[in-house]
Known about the structure:
This protein is an alpha+beta fold. It has three domains: 23-61 and 91-104 and 222-349 and 456-494, no CATH class; 119-208, no CATH class; 353-454, no CATH class. Helices cover 20% and strands 27% of the residues. The strands form six sheets. The protein has a seven-stranded mixed beta sheet.
Amino acid sequence: xxxxxxxxxxxxxxxxxxxxxxxxxxxxxxxxxxxxxxxxxxxxxxxxxxxxxxxxxxxxxxxxxxxxxxxxxxxxxxxxxxxxxxxxxxxxxxxxxxxxxxxxxxxxxxxxxxxxxxxxxxxxxxxxxxxxxxxxxxxxxxxxxxxxxxxxxxxxxxxxxxxxxxxxxxxxxxxxxxxxxxxxxxxxxxxxxxxxxxxxxxxxxxxxxxxxxxxxxxxxxxxxxxxxxxxxxxxxxxxxxxxxxxxxxxxxxxxxxxxxxxxxxxxxxxxxxxxxxxxxxxxxxxxxxxxxxxxxxxxxxxxxxxxxxxxxxxxxxxxxxxxxxxxxxxxxxxxxxxxxxxxxxxxxxxxxxxxxxxxxxxxxxxxxxxxxxxxxxxxxxxxxxxxxxxxxxxxxxxxxxxxxxxxxxxxxxxxxxxxxxxxxxxxxxxxxxxxxxxxxxxxxxxxxxxxxxxxxxxxxxxxxxxxxxxxxxxxxxxxxxxxxxxxxxxxxxx
Length: 494
């Protein structure tokens, strides 16, 4: 990993561009659970694609960059009874992070936009045809003409500039990350994989390839999130509510991962969708008109989880997507707020009600594959399934967990969201998947099972379709956020 706050030694002197347990029980248990504090948050795809999943937020400063050249270089994972299919305990599990206070200044967020990309040639470009490459702390940097091709060999990174320009080839230390920056007085973006990404790019060597990480100002990140999360025709107040939620969620993830890995969030279902630079008017305006606004509860930033469609029944974050007891706060206990059926929410949304049919053998194999992945003997040794029944519901009527029983008399309990993950992540390509963890299971004969459910996603926090329905009925974004994160305040952090 590279340092979070970078020093400027050997960098040209230019100005920067810039089911629920009692809280005490949960704190004790969470320190023993392997996934404590590092739960992967899987959020169902939202209307336009993917949506939304802990050390005070560190404002990461970009290295100083040189200005453009004044002249163009020459040319160019079975036992009997009832078990629990949870992950095994680990003595090295990290202590759950308390929620951070709002930062006073706009930070940089590190977004992984490429996951262990195969080592070969990575091509980067810039609208103004020059980039600055650097490895802070080594004294090695260079301004090169684009497009550039970056490859990695055992003896170093090899960067080849535009044909006919100098330097034509530059080598960098293979063991260190390589940074690709726009020049200080140029458009602050980099083109990679035919997409324009705001900010700069850092290439991190991994055991299987290269992680491509976009380092971007938070306010330049938010428009690219909400442009993917919401549909183009949606109301500006839905975009504003989404901007505040996305900004708050990102801040908590940034604080969580600041000193633990080389990226804060993933561009995709694990965290929040991100399309890079966007010109969609509602996305740009939704972000700019709420600049610096974050959700705060008891002086701390709210990890503002959200999903596409709640089906009228919200979920508690502590029952669903996070084992961190500090996330078990009133604004994130949607399941304790009662059903959302008496008010405008997502009644008319297409994703609200769904039904899929699976063969028992398919259902069993997906659960066994999931069991092997999390090292659960109860799930991995599952025999022919005879029933999948809801064990507990929350006060909103949404499933909290299920009991799975097989023909050998074995059974285990699985949290609703984990069951959704198991049935989707381990489904064969092109096979039917489930939209949420809130469903009823019934046999339909001939070894086939019908799953009839409500909602799309984990159901925590804001319901995106519900937000749009409220906006269309005349509610502004403050009222939308007050409904889906009750008790939270909107504060201007910067």
